[in-house]
Structures are given as C-alpha cells and as structure tokens.
Write a structure and sequence with these properties.
The chain is α/β, with parallel strands linked by helices. Helix content is 29%, strand content 23%. It starts with a helix and ends with a strand.
Length: 1487
Amino acid sequence: MADRECPLEAVPLPAEVRESLAELELELSEGDITQKGYEKKRAKLLARYIPLIQGVDPSLQAENRIPGPSQTMTTVPKQQKPRPTNSRDERFRSDVHTEAVQAALAKYKERKMPMPSKRRSVLVHSSVETYTPPDLHSAPPDVTTGLVEHSHCERPQLASVRGVPRGYSGSILETAGGVPVNSRVSSKIQQLLNTLKRPKRPPLKEFFVDDFEELLEVQQPDPNQPKPEGSQMVVLKGEPLALGTPWPPSLLAALQRWGTTQPKAPCLTALDTTGKAVYTLTYGKLWSRSLKLAYTLLNKLTSKNEPLLKPGDRVALVFPNSDPVMFMVAFYGCLLAELVPVPIEVPLTRKDAGSQQVGFLLGSCGVTLALTTDACQKGLPKAQTGEVATFKGWPPLAWLVVDGKHLTKPPKDWHPLAQDMGAETAYIEYKTSKEGSTVGVTVSHASLLAQCRALTQACGYSEAETLTNVLDFKRDAGLWHGVLTSVMNRMHVISIPYALMKVNPLSWIQKVCSYKARAALVKSRDMHWSLLAQRGQRDVSLSSLRMLIVADGANPWSISSCDAFLNVFQSRGLRPEVICPCASSPEALTVAIRRPPDLGGPPPRKAVLSMNGLSYGVIRVDTEEKLSVLTVQDVGQVMPGANVCVVKVEGTPYLCKTDEVGEICVNSSATGAGYYGLLGITKNIFETIPVTAGGVPVSDGPFTRTGLLGFVGPDNLVFVVGKLDGLMVVGVRRHNADDIVATALAVEPMKFVYRGRIAVFSVTVLHDDRIVLVAEQRPDASEEDSFQWMSRVLQAIDSIHQVGVYCLALVPANTLPKAPLGGIHISETKQRFLEGMLHPCNVLMCPHTCVTNLPKPRQKQPEVGPASMIVGNLVAGKRIAQASGRELAHLEDSDQARKFLFLPDVLQWRAHTTPDHPLFLLLNAKGTVTSTATCIQLHKKAERVAAALMEKARVSAGDHVALVYPPGVDLIAAFYGCLYCGCVPVTVRPPHPQNLATTLPTVKMIVEVSKSACVLTTQAIMRLLKSKEAAAAVDVRTWPTILDTDDIPKKKVASIFRPPSPDVLAYLDFSVSTTGILAGVKMSHAATSALCRSIKLQCELYPSRQIAICLDPYCGLGFALWCLCSVYSGHQSVLVPPLELESNVSLWLSAVSQYKARVTFCSYSVMEMCTKGLGAQTGVLRMKGVNLSCVRTCMVVAEERPRIALTQSFSKLFKDLGLPARAVSTTFGCRVNVAICLQGTAGPDPTTVYVDMRALRHDRVRLVERGSPHSLPLTESGKILPGVKVIIAHTETKGPLGDSHLGEIWVSSPHNATGYYTVYGEESLHADHFSARLSFGDTQTIWARTGYLGFLRRTELTDASGERHDALYVVGSLDETLELRGMRYHPIDIETSVIRAHRSIAECAVFTWTNLLVVVVELDGLEQDALDLVALVTNVVLEEHHLVVGVVVIVDPGVIPINSRGEKQRMHLRDGFLADQLDPIYVAYNM
C-alpha cells in the first residue's frame, strides 16, 4: 500500500474530505459516475493536500490506482525466462500474436493478485512462496471507501465481544473489527480488495425487468461502436461445372469401370506406425471385396429366416484410424448393397467422451448392425459373456467382422442392384453441435457425385495422380478427397495414420517425397508438427507437389502455420502458390478452396482486421492499433456450381453488407440434404432462404447454412473469421473461442500448460454468456507459475479482446475428455464443468470484473414516520401487527399462582405432600435408568448442597455460584441447593476432556464474567479443571473455590432462604449467541415462575404426565424444561442427554416409545442425527417395538427460523413408526425471553406460507404461491405462550408495523428476562433491549426487543378462544443478516442455495468481511475434487441472489462450528478463518 498511498500520507486529510472521497468512490463502484469524472473530482478534492510531484499534473496521480493492487515491494519486474525454442508443443504459434500479447501484458505492471491457498496434501508440488507474509500493519479497508484509515477507531463493544471480555487480558492484535490480523488470510484479502478497487467497466444505463423487483442491467449499444457502412452484398456465383468432360454416371460406375479395366492399378496404400507400407489395395481388389461384402450383407445375414437388412437400412462402420483399407471396402460394400454407411469412431471404453450422444445418433438412425475388423473387434470392451459390451446410451448392435475369411464369395451370376439412385441417401456423416448433441448429416447419391465432380474440377485432379492424406478418412475432407473423389479419378492415396504422425511428424513429407505425390491433404497441426521435427531432415523435397490442401484453413492460426511452413520448406522445393487453404462444414461439405494460378486462382490475400470491429460483427482493416488484431488468410473461391452468400447471424437471414461478418450459406447440388430424422431442425437451422434488405428472397431454392462466420473479400475470395459453434456473445459483443485460445497460447509460450489442450466455451450465468477457459497444466509447473500464468492470461485477454474471463481452470495433464483424433471434446468439458466433475487443480474466478449486469444497489426509501396518522389500530391502512397468547387471569386461580411464586417453596411443598412422586429419570446410552429423583430425594440432596455451600465455601446470600456438571440429576440438585441458601446459580457446560484448549476458556470466561464466588462440580471435573492440560489453556490459579458435591455429608440447613421479593434474582442464564457474543441474562423469581406457568398451561402438564427431553440443560428453554418445569408442574421428566445419542442414535425415540411420552422436546442437532443416522433403520426399530403413535407433540427448541426441510423429512421418515403427521412443530425463544412460542397441545396446526425471497431482501413480505420462482417457505414458530404479547416494530423508526410487514419482533410478558448481566452494567444496551417503547401508537407498554426479524399474519383459523388466529413467522436474527448492495440477506438463504449446488457439499456457512462475501463449504468427498465447487458456488449465488462471492473456502466436514442448539457459529468461523486456523483444503479469491 505504501506506494499507492504515498501522496496521501503527506498531509493528514480532514474528515470532510475523507467523507467526500468515500462518497466519490462509492459513486464510481456503483457506476453512477464515469472513470474520467471520478478522476477529475478526486484530483480536485486532493489538490490542496498533495505535494506536487516534479512535473506531474495532480490529476494524473489518480492514474496510479488503475493497475490496482498494492505494488508493495514488487515494482521490480520479474526477469522473463527465455522462451523454449524447440518444444514439441509449439503448436500454431503466431509470432505476430505472441508479440501483441507480450506488448499488451507489458502495459500491466506486475499486478499482485492474491494467490489461492491450498492445503499441502492437495498440492502436487509445493512451493514456499505460496504463503504471503503476515500483514501486520494495516486494517482491511472497507471496499466502499477509497482510503485506508490508519487510525484505529474503537467501536463500542458489548461487554464480551466474541469471547474476549473487556477485562480479559488478551495479547491478540485486533483490527477495528475485532479481528486478529496476524494472518496470511487477511493480507490476501487485502490484496483482493486492492485488485477489486480497480474501477469497473463503464456503467450501463438501461435495465430490463426480471419478474418483479430486481432490475438487471442490460447493456446499451455504445454510440461509438463501429457500424457496417458498405452496400448490400450480392450472391457470389462459382464457375459452372464443366460440361464437356465425360463424367462417369455414378461413383459405383467409376469403381466398376476401374475394378474391371484396371484391376492392377493401386488405389490405397496403408502404412504402419513405423511408416512401412503394410498393404496396397488395388482397384481390382477393392471391387471384388466390396462385391463380396455386399453379397454377404444382403444374403447371408438372417434373423428368424428374414433377411436382416433391406436396401436403405443404416449400418455403422467402426474402423480404427490405422485401417483405411478395410474401411474403404466396407464403405463401398454398403453402397453396392444399397445400405447407408454411418462411419463413427471406435469406442475405447464404456464411457468415452460424447459416446453416449453417438449412441443416440445410432439409435435414431435405427442402426442394428456394426461392421468392424477382426483386430478392432478383439480390442473392444467385452461383457462377461464375451460379447462386445453395450456402450452407454447405445442401441443393441450385432457386430460383423468384414475380414476376407468371414465373407462369402458371390455366385458368378450375382450382380448388385445398385442403380444411380439420385436423391436417395448415400451415407450419413455425424456432427457434434456446440451443446454436445450429435446429429447425422445425410448426403444423397446425387450430392456425393456432385461433390466429387466439383472437387475434381477445383483441384484439377487427373487420372492416376498420387495423393498423400493425413486426415481422418472417415469424415469431412479426408473422406471426400481420400475415399470418394480419388476413386472417381483412379487416384492412388497414401493414407498416413494419426499414430504414425505422433511418432514421426515428418512422415507425410517423406511420403510426398518418396511417392512423388502431386497433392497432399493436411491440417495446420500437421504442418506445425513437421516444422518442429524437420531439423534433422535435409534430403526431403516437396517439388512434386502441385497442391497442398490445408483442410482447416478456416482456423485463426492456420495462417501462421502456413507462413512458417513455407518459410522453412521453400528451400526444399515448396512453391508458395501450392499452399491451398480450404473451408468446409459437415452440412455444406466443401465451401471454398484456394486454387493454384494454373487452375485460374487469383493471388492469395491476407486481411489484418480489428478485433474490436469483429466483436461488433464489422470488418475494419486495422492500421494503427497493432495489439488487438486478427490476421486471416483467404480460403479461396467458392466451389464450381455453387452460389454463396453471407447472412446475418441472428433473426431474419438478411444479406449482410459487404463490410459485415455473417454466416456463410451455400446453394449447390453438392451439399448435405439435412439432419437425419430431424425435419424441424433441418427446416429451421440447416436450411435458410436469404432475403435482401427489402425482404425479397435471393433464390427459389434454400441455401445450406455452413456454421462458418466470414465475409467475401476482394477478388471474390472467401474469408472465414470463426465458427458459429465457437461464438460467445458477451453483452452485445461477439467473441470467437478460437481467437481467445490463440491469445491464451501466446502468453509466455507454454511453460505451464500444454498447447492444443485448451478449451474455451461460454456458460450462461445471470442472463449472459460468461467465458470459461480450461487448460491442462504440465506436471512440473509449480503453484506460483500456474497462478502467474493464469493472471497473465486474464490480462492478455482483457487487453486484446476487451472481455473478462469468468473462470480460468487448470486441470492435471491428460484429464480433459479427448475428441477421437486428439484435440479436446469441448461440449463434454463444458458438461463436466457445469456438473462439478472437471476436478481442476487450479481455479481463478473473476466474477467481479465480468458481471456487469447486476441489479442496481438499493437506495433506502423513507418509511412511514411518526407523523403518519394512527387510527384505532390501523397503521398506513393496515391492521397493526400485534398478537398475544391466552390471558393468564382467566386460566387459573390466582391463589395457586401466589403459592407457587418461589420455586424452592414449590419443591418443599411437593417433598411434603407427595414425597415419593418421581420427578426425574436419567437415561444412559443403553437406555437404562442411571439415576432417578423423587420429590423428597431432590429436596434432601438440595439441602445437603446448601449446607456444604454455607459451611465449606462460606458463601452468603446473593453470591453467584457456577454449576459445572454433566447433564443429570446432580445438576438439578445443585441448582435447588443454591436457591435454598439464597445463592444465584449459573449453569455452565463442562469442558470437553478431549478438547480442553477450546472449551475450557469459555468455562473460565463464564465463571469470571458472572463473578461466581464458587464452582460446584463433580470429582472428575474438578480434577480436570486443575489438571496440567487445563493449565495450558487457562490460568488455573485464579479459579474461585471449587467444591465437589459427590460425597457431601448428610446435613440439614438450619433455615431455607426465602427471597424478600419476587423481583430478586433467581438465576443467571449464559449463552453464546451465533454471532459469538457471550450474553448472560438475569431471571428473577417472578419471571421464573411465570415461565413455568406459561409452559404448564400451553402443554397441559400435570403430575400424572410424562415428557421426554433430549436437550442440553445449560441455557434457554432447554434449561427451563430440564431443571424448572417438573418441579413446578409435578410431571415426570425422562431426561436423555443429547451426547449419549452419539453412541446410540435411537436412544431418544426408543425412550419416547417406552415411556409413551405424549410430549417430547429435542433440538435441531438431535433431529438431524436421527434423520441421518436412522434413515435406513426404521424397519429395524419397528422390529424392536419402537412405536411413536403416543406422541401428541414433538417440539424442536430453537432460536432461529424453523428448518422446514429438516422437520418435514423427520416427519416423513418416522411416519412408519406411527409418528402422527401433525406432531412435529418448533418453538421460538431468544435471549430476552427464552419461550415466546411453543406449539403446545391445543390450538390450530402451524401454517406455512410462501414469501418472495427477493422482497425479503428489501425488508418486505410478499406472499406468493407455492412453487413460484424465488419462493421461500416459512412456517409458523408455534403458538404464542399465555401471557405473552408480541408486536412487530420497524427496525429504525421503532414505530408499529401493519399485518404481514417485516420488522423486529418485540415481546412483552411476565417471564421476560430483566436485563443483561455483564461485567460493566451497560445501561444503554439494557434500556434498548429490555425496556423499549414504540415511537408512536401505544407508547406506554414496555417491550423487550428480540433482535429477530419476522412478521405476524392473521390466518383464517380460529384458536381456542374462538378468535382468529395470528401466526408469528420468524425470518432470522438481525445480528446475523448481511447488508450487501443495500439489501438485507439472511445467511441461511444463501447457504441453502450453495448446499444444493453440488452433492459433495455437506454443509455451508457464509459471512462478510470488509464487504466481501465469504462462503465456507464443507467437502464431503475427495480432496482433489475440491476445486470443482468454486465455480458452482459462485454461479449459484450469482444466479439466485445476485451477489458476487469474494472468497470461497473449502474445508473438511465438521469444521463449521455448531452450538448445542444446532446453530452455525458463523462469527467463530470468521475469526478462525481470519486467524488462519481452519486448515482449509483450498481458498479461492474471486477477482
């Protein structure tokens, strides 16, 4: 930071200037001001305070901040490593492009981005540099303000913020946010923030409405964008097909002629992987073997005495790339038998990339027979029966081996029927679309013949010429030239297998030389490979070549391969005019090909086009801006007999203007006929009828769309600039995947990733295409290298294409799905990316820079103020949202209420009147009763404790005593013992012996904060508190008196203490909130008995009842049910400690069944354990006699929004065991009042409503139908308890709100706590939370603020009193909500979306840090799959919540801390993350 901020350090800025700067920064980040305006205003503000740097205008100093991240100490540029010169993978490198990229990168200084951090076990190679040094000097800045303020401002803290009370000595260096900063995490986030502070793209003006609330920005056309200015193009006509030439009437006629008149003429030579010719097929052999196969197919294959095949049936051809001879025989054999060959790739495994789609194609073509060779059949995967395995998605096939010995010789008089069949289908070529679906393009006999004639004419093929073919002979140009046209002209084809090219890239050149080939058919890859290998070969000559056909001339990098190849081989006899790039497509076959001058071709051309122009679909020859240009070469003239035009890509196919890029369309007799079996798609996509600007069709017949994007240049030459399949439309601009690959390849020419193993595709996130780049990383690349490469690729693409990359992923070598002949299977890669099955080893997401169409941040609207009229109980025209439980006065005689005012009195009375009535049964993990307590036993135990306290601990009335006990009867006895001697008990969860370091400090803290004079506990725990291990965690010398109550003598107390008034403190209830704040509340005797009375009435509890409790007894409602209620109401409580469920999950449910409990209480964590642990065992439990039909109500004790999914799955699961459908419900309480709602036994069932999640973000409730988009189910939290009044108040104005309005829940009841108990009595806090008054309306009643958002809704149901029932819906805790983009988000909603994103996400928690959203996910799977989650998490949060995730942290299961109520402790997690204690598997910083 030092560098960037140095001008600002010179003069301390006045507060108002800081404020103006912060506002300015906010305006820029929200896009309300342009970059220029921002810089002007900023310079103006700072002008007086910045000492002028020599000769630099102050307004320019703002420019320093554009490169972004802190340039601390890294201003020295790294020494560039020398470029490797002869590595194998230098595929298609264009030096021009590389230089452009290097120049573009030079514009960026070494921008320091935060590197993702990985756990060592995930690292393949670790490097020390992955760790950033701890950043000890600066607090993280808020992203919304520009300046880092170095003055730490103290913020008012709660007495004990997150576990460190004020008086507590801690040596942690904290930032203003109470966050320790001595961690590498915070310095990385610092870097991330600095990077994010770079101004966003220019702001966008217009919006479109998405459903209702969220207005997503849509990009408006830039007024300065280039627009096409040329005239409308005319249809380009190719030369006519020559008439004078004696063409054979059909291809089969040509085959018959050569097979009978020139049987010895060579037709095809096959090579092995050493380059030796293994077999030469003559025309005679081809003819006789094809006849033999045709006869066998038609006459020898039967099923149930019916011939298996009839003319016109489709047959699959499965031949390896190394066997062109058998393929050719099979292809012509099928044609002779009038069958339709469908050539496909050899499936190598059951799950090849894309093989399922090929299976779908075979199924849709009705293929039942596959032809193959003996060797290939042996190599196919087999089922157990020895038959060829059925591949995933394939139809059942019969396999026929076509080697000679399996075929039958036809009788002398047998002749195939094959006539010239014209429009009938000759063969089907498969094509994979951008989405991965595979379709078959049908080619008719007439088209086949026309294609051969056109190619013969265009390439000037003559009889007996030799052609070297490096391409795949099963499809595309390899098939058209090397199998079909060659036979028409009796040519000799030398077929070079891919395997030979891999071993010896020069093989094709050597074959051209040794066979004196006149023509060669290659791809740019083959030229490139031979360049790398040619150094040792001095004696090759290419002078025999008259045509070197480059089949992928339409690739952006073919030009550099052609140029480089010519450079090297011109000295070996290669003539420049011989190189003939061509363009083809599966639909239109050959589209255009360059002709040598002797065949009448014009001189070749190059075009240097502006990338920016191209992205708007406009051709601009670029002169000045050398960085972002695309150089393309022509692919020659259109084919003989064809008409070609260029039409607009989207919408009506209008002809393009001459300087506009569009899709090239062809009308000729030599194109494919359509997609097999897909008439609709053929009509709409395969064919088109181009129209002029006036809407007049340009021809009678349809044109075929080629899928190639391009234009017609000078001399009527065709130029191709990309493919429709690779087109990505981001905003309003179009980018081509191949161009982006070329840019990525030009970055540091390939030290870290493999060339040619890069895939670029787009995924739709939030209504726009987002660019994803996936590459294979070399095994020797270090983390640092890869990350450096990734950040440079981002910068290069940003510079050259002016587009952001959404996600860049590196995967281990050889793990991307391959296409059959090398290359990457793009659609399969995309599929894996979206399904989270890509398993990358490095990921960099940049949603901050790419996503520019987020909705505008919300501006707060002024709400109804106190001045608005309140009429009766209406506010702003709506009924005021208030509700109350039943009146206490009507319900019971007040005499008993007075008698039961003090719990110690009640216990003594019960001990006197019903001494042997059992109150408590405690169960252990086996389900056996380990201890019981009757009224008299409990009373006597309590007396003993009281005596010990007075004698041994010398406590006096009013002292506080900490009770550190495991759940059990001792705890209850100790509690009443304290009350008997006038002490104030504080229940504390005992430390966990295996985890003292984290649990003991909390115990110590509660003991200290509560000012306990004595600790009561068991012997075992006493030893633990004073042990050596404990001394390592806390200062054991400062414990107060510790007393163990295991063997205290039997003594009576002289007199039992009687409180002077009901308002005297009875006990303290301490609990750590989910936001990490330890808060103790004071409960008076009056509140305690009122609480018991309300619960007794709501649940109808009497001495004859039994209830089962599976809760922790330390705080809140759990404590009240465990320790207080039984004594008050006299019912019997079956106590099940939740900890015992870890060794016996069914313990609680078995107890409920055994004791026939009508009422039972549990926590969410218990319910989750049962659902997960007993899901599959309901049958076993039924056998054991577990029956839950006795349960009237099963209540989940919670302080959060009801978890509907969990309670519903619990109900469904245990319905089999008789659990009534309506039994499960939830309760709601909080710190100020531990029991506000509780379903109880009477009253209507809880209702569920669906609200719009987007309205909730704006603090509004909008009820919607179930299943509507963005709907969120909320269920009522139980019935409001007797004596409790609830009102909904506005969070800021504190005025009452209307029915169904979201606000803070306020509660008034006799059992409200009387205040917080803290070290320093924070009076203001207490007044605010416990004695709030409405700002208008009923300003007299004193309310307690719960800190929870919710709403009341009057339902159609009636309650017991006959009134309409008011339902209370809790939405979430205010402290937990995240304020992002001016809206209020509840973490649970984001977490629910994230958990749904991938099956290996076990749990998730989110929090914010300096305005960044941090998502922590627990990975339930293999560590190497962790990085799959980064993109999925980012996508789902963007799509569903319109938020950009700042950091994704992937951790092991169980890392997210959960409290005893089953709530996530998000603030503990946050502190652990920032202090670097989570040991994450991976941390991704999204740019």
